[in-house]
Amino acid sequence: MFKVITRATSMKGLTLAAFSALTLSVITTAATFAYKGGMDAVTLVAARALAGFLSAAFFVACLRRVPRIAPKMGLITIGMSVSQLMINFGYMASVFFIPVSLAALIFYSFPVLVLIIDAIAKHRFPPLGVTLAFVIALGGLTIALGPSFNTLNGFGLFSAGLASIGGALLIIFGVKLTRRAGALATFFHLQLIACGVTTYIMLLFGGPALPVAKLGWCALMVACVAYVVGVGTQVVALKILEPAPAALIYNLEPIGTLAIAAWLLNERLSPLQYFGCAMVIAAITIAGQGWAKKTANDSAED
Question: Residue 164: phi, psi to the nearest 5?
């Protein structure tokens, strides 16, 4: 399903994507502590983007490489940047109007959107096993998150849906851009645009609203580090993987968030939620092994 040279390379891409997803899952819990420390959501998003840009600039300076992107890739670069902003602000806005569990379920349906878009682009249906893996993973997430439908709000549903579309487009555009411009150039320009836009929005809302407690500052640092590492490894993984495998792996992110919340926030998971998590992990593991095996077979035929 995706074109890489060896099984080892494909496993590297899948492992990087899994590491990225689990690292990004730290941000939600870190954000909770940052908010308790006096920070607001808009400032946190801007701070993450600033940390991302400074990190990208540091790597560019150390490697002495000019992060050029060809003019013909400009629209894809803008598309990927807008997609990231759709995720950041769409998901952030949705949780103020609908239950967090419902917002998370809607957002994390984006892997299915990627599978559909990828199939349309390639003019062929995905294999039955792949389709089942996506369905099982989404079903597992539904069970694990246990979404509440008690409070429904049109704007909240729209915002979560917008974030989901952003997640799908980020994967689609990311695969194209990283392969043509490279991971470093992609990461640099993605964070440059995000830093500028989020800083402007933060100032527009009267920010920055910085933490007033030590806990808030520590949580901010954790969130920023998790963001830099998570997004950094994400762009490297997207350079290796095809859209569908990359998207499926990111079902691990909400599972990681649940595990961290259960550990740090003393939130108990029911046996049914554990079963849902197991469904997601099983779907990803089986599909990942299948993709890696197919890669090895394709490489042998070549």
Answer: -65, -45
Chain center to CA of 50: 18
Residues 6+ away with beta carbon under 8 Å from 19:
233
- Token pair 């990283």: residue: 178
Q: Output the DSSP codes for 32-59.
A: HHHHHTT--HHHHHHHHHHHHHHHHHHH
Instruction: Name the token pair of 12.
Output: 């590297």
Q: What is the pLDDT of residues 145-184, one digit of tens each?
A: 887 777 778 888 999 999 999 999 999 999 999 999 899 9
> What pTM was computed for the model?
0.87
How far is the C-alpha of 151 from the C-alpha of 156, rounded, in Å? 10
Sign of CA dihedral 81, 82, 84, 88: positive
d(CA 220, CA 39): 9
How far apart, in whole angstroms, are the C-alpha atoms of residue 46 and residue 63? 26
151: which DSSP letter? S
